[in-house]
From TrEMBL, chain A:
Keyword line: Membrane, Transmembrane, Transmembrane helix
Transmembrane regions: 122-140, 146-167
Record organism: Cohnella fermenti
Name assigned to this protein: DUF2812 domain-containing protein
InterPro entries per the UniProt record, alphabetical: DUF2812
Length: 176, 115
């Protein structure tokens, strides 16, 4: 039996990964099981006979103490099947859906959940300053093109700033 | 002995990871099961929590990589507690004993006074 591939489009924001999880889990309940993401294009396998719980994890990088293989192996041991990665930093995992399993989380205490949010926040901060640097570079010449770029950058900074701020609020809410 | 004191108090996850490794070297899944067993099913350490905790503990030198026995899956890493880690566990246990003692004393005084 061949599984049919289907596509869906969604703009997902790094600081709302729980919403993305909810969305993927709702799709899986309908028989569409997430396989991979490229930018805004989600590819699914259709199979009405199964249902999964999806979770996202963010890891800044591997190599220092653990390789990606060891990371995936640890999650597999804990019952999580590795699905795919996005941008080398977001990793998608799933496990067969079980009734009343809201507690099937990757992060089971507020300290480690805050740690996850802080890692995402740090990535947003890096993107912010990298783009600030590019902006200065690209708009320094002025002119019409320079000014329209400036408008785009202001928008980008507003989005990144919002993300940073939202994550800060989440961290504050779960920290004692 | 003083080293690692700044890690206190430990979160429940950190505490159970170190206590489990105090007994014997183990891999990630073994630590999860041991924590759940010791806590009577109360403490379930999620994969993300465990992974980030292991990285932190490795970075702090309180645990170390342990050679994987021949013939087992080499991707499944094993961990062992270090002397520093043992000192952290002991310091945490004395801290907890003090808390427990103070609390119990307060309770018994309160009961004597009938409040």
């Amino acid at each position: 039996m061949t599984t049919a591939k289907e596509k869906r489009y969604r703009l997902s924001l790094s600081w709302e990964h729980e919403k993305e999880e909810e969305w993927l889990n709702a799709r899986s309940a309908e028989g569409l099981h997430f396989k991979k993401l490229s930018l805004v294009k989600y590819t699914f396998d259709r199979d009405p006979s199964v249902r999964y719980t999806y979770r996202l994890d963010y890891q800044g990088g591997f190599g220092k103490t653990m390789s990606k293989e060891e990371y995936i192996e640890l999650y597999r041991d804990a019952g999580w099947e590795y699905v795919s990665s996005y941008g080398a930093m977001w990793h998608y995992f799933r496990r067969p859906y079980e009734e009343g399993e809201e507690a099937q989380l990757l992060y089971t205490d507020s300290e480690s959940l805050a740690g996850l949010y802080k890692r995402v926040q740090a990535m947003i901060a890096v993107m912010f300053f990298m783009n600030l640097f590019f902006m200065v570079f690209n708009t320094i010449r002025g002119g019409v093109l320079g000014y329209s770029l400036l408008v785009l950058y202001v928008f980008l900074f507003a989005v990144l700033g919002t993300g940073y701020f939202r994550l800060g609020k989440k961290i504050k809410r779960i920290s004692k | 002995m003083e080293k690692g004191k700044d890690m206190l108090p430990l979160t429940e996850a950190f505490y159970y990871i170190l206590v489990a490794l105090y007994v014997e070297p183990s891999h990630g899944y073994g630590i999860m099961q041991e924590a759940e067993r010791m806590s009577g099913g109360r403490v379930k350490i999620g994969a993300g929590t465990l992974y980030t905790a292991l990285n932190t503990l490795l970075g702090r030198g309180v645990i170390d990589n342990y050679p994987v026995p021949e013939g087992t899956d080499s991707r499944r890493k094993m961990y062992a507690i270090t002397d520093e880690g043992r000192a952290v566990v002991r310091a945490e246990i004395s801290r907890l004993e003090e808390l427990l003692k103070s609390g119990k004393q307060a309770l018994s005084i309160g009961e004597e006074r009938g409040t």
